[in-house]
Specification:
Oligomer: single chain
Radius of gyration: 19 Å
CATH class of the largest domain: Alpha Beta
Number of helices: 9
Largest sheet: 9 strands, mixed
Strand order of the largest sheet: 5-6-4-3-2-1-11-12-13
């Protein structure tokens, strides 16, 4: 009897509201599924709006050493110690091969300050102390300090006219997406492009690769659209309220890390049976 070939799988996942509980940042409900992925040597690509420094902190907490995508696709980072070839077009810094796909933060800050002078009521992380960010978000002071270490985007408090802001940002080559608490100003990048770069890298090593993507918010849609196995993690006010019409889409019955863990366990079983 021919030996059954093990399919190569790569997992791309959002953090807040998916792998992490929104209010407590706990991942307790996902521990078993994370262990299953580690046992099978399946890469877990954290794909998030968090900064590189924040992702480094969460990689340590989660026991993940794989590539990652920061600031909604603004940065793509491949640890140089991994058995992967150096991708073309990457720069080397801080132990990573990296693609900078986003507009540099200093340019975004200049735009925020200019727009504020023009009457737009914007207050970004660059206008706040770490203590203020911690108080607003519920982060620890360390987490808030890392959240301020931005490279490709600026979360802002904004209660003005979003249509007018969008029109003002367009000539600057900038856009925004609305999160639960903040409006995030950035360039034209998204999570899907970073996902494509990392998937192509693994395909050069492994050949055929299947992808699982898990997210809960509209900014996760570009990676869900690319995935072989797209998963919307249930969240009130999130994508699960109006799921996108994607082939094979799974919407979890539980919210947050519990739903994340249920989806991973189920999909690994389906992949094994297939």
């Amino acid at each position: 009897m021919a030996e059954k070939r093990v399919k190569k799988v790569v997992v791309f996942t959002d953090l807040d509201g998916a792998l992490l509980e929104l209010r407590t940042y706990s991942f307790e409900g996902a521990r078993y599924a994370l262990e299953l992925l580690r046992e099978r040597d399946i890469p877990i690509i954290l794909t998030t709006s968090k900064t590189r420094r924040e992702v480094e902190l969460w990689r340590s907490r989660l026991g993940v050493q794989d590539p990652f995508i920061s600031e909604n696709g603004g940065g793509v980072f491949i640890p140089t110690h991994l058995p992967l070839p150096r991708p073309e077009g990457t720069e080397v810094f801080n132990g990573y091969w990296g693609w900078a796909l986003g507009v540099p933060y200093r340019e975004i800050r200049r735009a925020v300050e200019d727009l504020r002078r023009r009457g737009f009521p914007l207050k970004g992380f660059g206008d706040m102390t770490a203590e203020e960010v911690a108080q607003i978000t519920g982060m620890t002071l360390e987490e808030a300090t890392f959240a301020k270490a931005r490279e490709f985007s600026e979360p802002c408090l904004f209660e003005g006219d979003e249509l007018q802001l969008k029109k003002a940002l367009q000539p600057l080559g900038l856009s925004f997406w609305r999160g639960g608490r903040f409006l995030h100003i950035q360039g034209s990048h998204d999570k899907g492009r970073g996902m494509g770069l990392i998937t192509d890298l693994y395909r050069k090593v492994w050949g055929d690769v299947q992808t699982i993507a898990l997210g809960d918010s509209p900014n996760d849609l570009p990676m869900l659209q690319r995935a072989d196995w797209p998963v919307v993690v249930r969240r009130r006010g999130g994508l699960s309220d109006n799921p996108p019409p994607l082939e094979g889409l799974m919407v979890t019955s539980s919210e947050g890390p519990r739903g994340w863990g249920e989806a991973i366990t189920e999909l690994l079983s389906q992949i094994d049976d297939g």
